[in-house]
Specification:
heterodimer; A: about 140 residues; mainly alpha; about 75% helix; elongated; B: about 190 residues; Four Helix Bundle (Hemerythrin (Met), subunit A); 2 domains; about 0% strand
C-alpha cells in the first residue's frame, strides 16, 4: 500500500490521535470505561496501522523486536513487582493500601501502576504477534 | 421502547451476519463479516450498559483479531489461490442435529433466567452489592469495573496478564525465529530463537 496517497495522508493524521486516545484510555480508566488492556490494544493498533500503510520494516525501526520482547516482560514485572513492593511495605501481596499515605491514596497509586503494567504487556504482545505473522509471510 | 427496537435491529443484523458467514466461501469476505459482527456485538453491549466490555470487544474482536486473521490468510495461501473455502466433504446432518439440540436446550434454559437487570437475580446477590457500595470508599475509584478488575480481583488480572505474556512467548517460539535460507541476505538481524 506504499503508493496509496489518500491512505498515507489519512493514516498520518489518524495515528497521533490513536496514540493520544490510547493514553487517555490508559490513564483515565479509573474514571471512565477502559483501562490498561484496552489502552494497550489501541496503542498497538496505531502502530499496526503504520506498519500496514508504510511497511513493517519502517515500523520495526520505531520499535525494534528486541525492545518489544523487553517491554512484554517489563509489564508483567511491573505488575508482579507492585505485589512484592506491598509485601515489603508490610502488607499482603497486591494489597495497594500500604503503598500510599492512606488506604485510598495507596489504592489509587497501585491501580495506576498495575494498569500501566497491563498496558505495556498487552501493547507489546499484540505487536510481537503481528510482527511475527508479518515477518513469516514476507517472501524471501 | 426505543431500546428494544435497537436491540431487535442489532440482533437481526447479527443473525444476518451469521447466515452470510455460513454461506460465503470467500475467506476474505468472511473475515470482514467477523469484524463487523464484533462491532455489532459491541453495540449490543453498549445498549446493555456494559461499556467496558463493549470497548474490549471493539478493540480486540473487531480490531486486532481481524488483523491477525488476515495475517493468517496471507500466510496460509500462496499467490495463485483465490482464498476460497473448500466445500465440506461430509453431509451436514450430524452437525445440524447437534446445533439444533444445543440451541433448543439453550432456549429452554432461558426460560429460567431472571429478567435483565433484575436486582433479585442470584448474580446480583453475592458480592455485587458489596462492590457497588464499598468500592468508592475502599479504593476512591469511581469506575467500579476498574476497581474490581485491578483491586478486588487483582490476582485474576495478574493471571490474565501472564496468560497474554505466555501467548506472545508461544507465538515467538512457534513461528518466531528466522527461517533458514540458503543466502543469508539480511545482516544485523538480532532475532534469534
Amino acid at each position: 500500500m506504499k503508493h496509496n496517497l489518500i491512505l498515507r495522508v489519512i493514516s498520518k493524521f489518524m495515528i497521533p490521535l490513536i496514540f493520544l486516545f490510547a493514553l487517555y484510555v490508559q490513564f483515565h480508566g479509573d474514571f471512565g470505561p477502559g483501562g490498561g488492556f484496552q489502552a494497550g490494544v489501541i496503542f498497538s493498533a496505531g502502530i499496526i496501522l503504520y506498519a500496514l500503510v508504510f511497511g513493517t520494516e519502517l515500523a520495526q525501526k520505531i520499535i525494534p523486536p528486541r525492545v518489544l520482547h523487553f517491554l512484554a516482560s517489563l509489564g508483567v514485572l511491573i505488575y508482579a513487582g507492585t505485589g512484592v513492593a506491598s509485601l515489603i511495605l508490610g502488607g499482603k501481596y497486591l494489597e495497594y493500601g500500604v503503598l500510599g499515605s492512606n488506604q485510598v491514596a495507596g489504592q489509587h497509586l497501585g491501580i495506576l501502576v498495575i494498569e500501566l503494567g497491563v498496558g505495556i504487556t498487552v501493547m507489546s504482545v499484540m505487536l510481537i504477534i503481528f510482527f511475527t505473522f508479518a515477518e513469516r509471510g514476507r517472501p524471501e | 421502547m426505543i431500546e428494544s427496537i435497537v436491540d431487535i435491529v442489532l440482533l437481526a443484523l447479527l443473525v444476518i451476519h451469521a447466515i452470510a458467514i455460513i454461506y460465503l466461501r470467500n475467506l476474505f469476505a468472511v473475515i470482514m463479516l467477523f469484524s463487523s459482527f464484533s462491532f455489532i456485538s459491541a453495540g449490543l453491549f453498549v445498549v446493555m450498559d456494559a461499556v467496558d466490555v463493549a470497548f474490549t470487544e471493539a478493540a480486540v474482536g473487531a480490531g486486532i483479531s481481524t488483523v491477525l486473521m488476515l495475517g493468517t490468510i496471507a500466510l496460509t495461501y500462496s499467490r495463485g489461490d483465490n482464498k476460497q473455502e473448500k466445500l465440506p466433504a461430509h453431509k451436514p446432518w450430524l452437525p445440524l442435529i447437534v446445533v439444533i439440540l444445543t440451541g433448543g436446550m439453550l432456549i429452554y434454559g432461558t426460560s429460567d433466567i431472571p429478567a435483565f437487570g433484575d436486582p433479585l437475580a442470584p448474580a446480583q446477590q453475592h458480592v455485587a452489592p458489596y462492590y457497588l457500595e464499598q468500592s468508592l470508599p475502599d479504593t476512591g475509584v469511581p469506575n467500579v469495573v476498574t476497581a474490581v478488575l485491578a483491586s478486588y480481583r487483582g490476582f485474576d488480572t495478574l493471571g490474565e496478564v501472564t496468560v497474554i505474556f505466555t501467548a506472545g512467548v508461544a507465538v515467538l517460539l512457534l513461528i518466531g525465529g528466522r527461517r533458514r535460507t540458503k543466502t543469508e541476505t539480511r545482516a544485523g538481524d538480532d532475532r534469534e530463537t
